[in-house]
Amino acid sequence: MYSNDRKTGFSVLDLLVKIIFAALFVFLLIWLFKKNVPNMAPFYSNVFRENIKYMQEAGESYFTDDRMPQEVGQSTQISLADMYDKKLILPFVDEDGNSCNQYESYVSITKQEGYYELKTNLVCNKESDYTIKVLGCYTYCENNNCSKTCRKEQIVEYQFKKLTSKTNTTYSCPSGYTRNGKYCYKTELVKTESAERVKTTTKTETINANINIISGSKKRIPTVITQEPNISERVYVDTIVKTTEGKKEIVYVDANKKWIPAQTKTERSCSTTYKKQYYNCNCTTYRDSDGRSHTTCNTCTRTIPVETCEDKKVTVSEGYYAYSCPSNATNHSGSGSSLKCWYYKTIDGSKSYSCPSNATNHSGSGSNLKCWYYKTIPGKKHYSCSSDTNYSEGEGANLKCYKITNGSYNYSCPSGYTLKGNKCTKTITGTFTELRCDKGYKLEGKVCKKYESTKIKATVKTTTKKGYTYKWSRKSSLSGWTKTGKTRVVEGKEICE
Q1: Which residue, 104, 364, 395, 455, is most buried by CB atoms nearer than 10 A?
Q2: Contact yes or no for 436/195 (Cβ under 8 A)
Q3: Which H, E and C letters describe the chain, residue by residue?
Q4: Across the chain, what does the average pLDDT equal?
Q5: Alpha-carbon torsion (143, 144, 145, 148), positive or negative
Q6: Contact 456/449 with Cβ under 8 angstroms?
Q7: For residues 26 and 33, what is the distance between their CA atoms, to the nearest angstrom?
């Protein structure tokens, strides 16, 4: 059934036509905007200036009388990171949407003769600059007497440029190496063994001490980040085996590993001492009137040796690991930890061994062929605080380091702990299992890993680039510099009358 009644509103066709015209209009505006506004640098520069202005205003409000330096030449400052923490300013970004450097950007105030100098320094990804504002008697008065009329000195500065040559030296390393200075390093995992379990009766628990701020304020300082070198790990792959005809095959078996305790023997040790002995000497015999015989002697001394002996245990050899082949191994090579044991197995067909295409390295041949490729494992990042840190929060990538400024503090520990510096320690007794590795191995998790490091010289490339260096000066001419024609007006000292 059809109806002749007219409906109100837009039809689908009308709506589609309006959308097409709107799209064409927007496209035309974009084309005209790009054609007539080729340079957006003034807009980007304005973004940077506005960010400095916000920081300057926040710094003026922060530096109250109790935070001002007291002596001429003294300075105090607050970083952009601290401004964010104290909610003095909202986070902002540069023209590319990147955050500015929170620790190199700051507002400082310095006391001069009769005035204060407020410096606002901003460092972003592609641009860095600073402003100087002089604070005079209208803000800081003696005896609350602010009846003077003050004005700021206006100073004209000229921009100069000078053509300079900059030599840039770069160092590069082959694939798989990590550069440190003029050398390239590669650390390779070569062997993995199970860790030895050793039982202990005590262990030491260490925690951060509690910091008690008596006076002053807590200031965040940069976290120290150290990067371990990348590790090239061997990934072994199966060899390709093809059987042709009967032959003997070498079958390798694990060597027996046994701990031989230290050997001792008993040795007799003697020493000689000397003592004094008394005896009769110089004897004389005579007869009395009755005919009886008498003998008289003097007493003399002499030194005689006395020998004293004792048995002592002496270590003949230190404890060591002894390696031997099992009974089914009829052949061996090497010795010690390098001992290899094998026997021959007769098979129906001879076998040829080769590496697959993904194996970039190999060693040995035949049944002893080993194939592998290298897998790069990024080095771990370690986060720590510098030596002047008084207090820290979190750990790993969330570690925050703080320093107490303009005040005093002390540390305390929970009950049962002993304070050592800024750490609390406690000895716990019980039965504990400790994992240990042989010398030359590094404990990772529950296994012992052995690494080998390679050091080579980095490839050196030197390039020279010419460009202009710019600077501002209050002088109208500088020796060796050329004027660019640009000027700016900066505020000088406060002049009060």
Answers
A1: 104
A2: yes
A3: CCCCCCCCCCCHHHHHHHHHHHHHHHHHHHHHHHHHCCCCHHHHHHHHHHHHHHHHHHHHHHCCHHHCCCCCCCEEEEEHHHHHHCCCCCCCECCCCCECCCCCCEEEEEEECCEEEEEEEEECCCCEEEEEEEECCCCCCHHHCCCCCEEEEEEEEEEEEEEEEEEEEEEECCCCCEEECCEEEEEEEEEEEECEEEEEEEEEEEEECEEEECCCEEEEECCEEEECCCEEEEEEECCEEEECCCEEEEEEECCEEEEECCEEEEEEEEEEEEEEEEEEEEEEEEECCCCCEEEEEEEEEEEEEEEEEEEEEEEEECCEEEEECCCCCCEEECCHHHCEEEEEEEECCCEEEECCCCCCEEECCHHHCEEEEEEEECCCEEEECCCCCCEEECCHHHCEEEEEECCCEEEECCCCCEEECCEEEEEEEEEEEEEECCCCCEEECCEEEEEEEEEEECEEEEEEEEEEEEEEECCCCCCCCEEEEEEEEEEEEEEEC
A4: 81
A5: positive
A6: no
A7: 11
Cβ-based neighbour number of residue 256 at 10 Å: 14
CA-to-CA dists, residue 430 to 96, 203, 424, angstroms: 59, 8, 20
In this prediction, residue 120 carries a pLDDT of 92
Q: What is the mean pLDDT of residues 173-183?
A: 83
Q: With a threshold of 0.90, does the pTM exceed it? A: no
Q: Looking at residue 286, what is its pLDDT?
A: 80
Q: Which residue has tokens 């300079």?
A: 164
End-to-end CA distance of the chain: 95
Please give the average per-residue pLDDT across 210-229, as a whole number: 82
Closest by Cα among 224, 178, 222, 227 to 381: 227
pLDDT higher than threshold 60 for residue 343: yes
Question: Who contacts 43 (Cβ-Cβ below 8 Å, separation ≥6)?
Answer: 95
Is the distance from CB of 229 to CB of 316 less than 8 angstroms?
no
